[in-house]
Design a protein that fits this description.
This protein is mainly beta and 147 residues long. Helix content is 0%, strand content 51%. Its main location: membrane. InterPro entries: Cadherin-like_dom (IPR002126), Cadherin-like_sf (IPR015919), Protocadherin/Cadherin-CA (IPR050174).
Length: 147
Amino acid sequence: MREVKLWVRAEDGGAPALSSNVSVRLVIVDEKENAPQVLYPPAAPLAAGAGWAGVELAPRSAESGALVAKVVAVDADAGRNAWLSYELAKATEPGLFRVGLHSGEVRTGRAGTDLESPRRNVFVLLRDWGQPPRSVTGTLSIVLVRG
C-alpha cells in the first residue's frame, strides 16, 4: 500500500480574493491482478497459458538433500500479495525430489543411483498469498547424469 499526501489551494479572482486550503490523502491499494512469473529456469517455448518448463542436470550420485535446481519467481503485486510459496504438485518418481516451500529449491529426497530412466519430471506449483491467490504451474525436467 502506498500513500500520497498533497495540499490543494484554490483562490478566486475577486477583490478581495477568497481562498481555501485542503489536505488530500490518497491511499493506493494493490488490486491483486498479477500471477507469479518464473525468472529461472529459463522457460522453454510452450503453448500460451501452459505455464513454464525448464531443464536441469543433476548427478545420479547426488546424496539425499543435494541441491538440484532453484526455481526463482517474482510477483509484481505489493506487500503480502507478492509473497510466494512453492510446492511439489506432482513428480514422475514420488520421493525422489522435494521443493522448499519458501525458497523454491529443488533437492533430492533420496539418492537416485538405481534409476533406469535418466529423465524425471517435477511439476512445481507457485502460488502467491493474495486473495484470491494466483498461481502458475510448471515442469522442471531433471536429467540425471553420471558423475
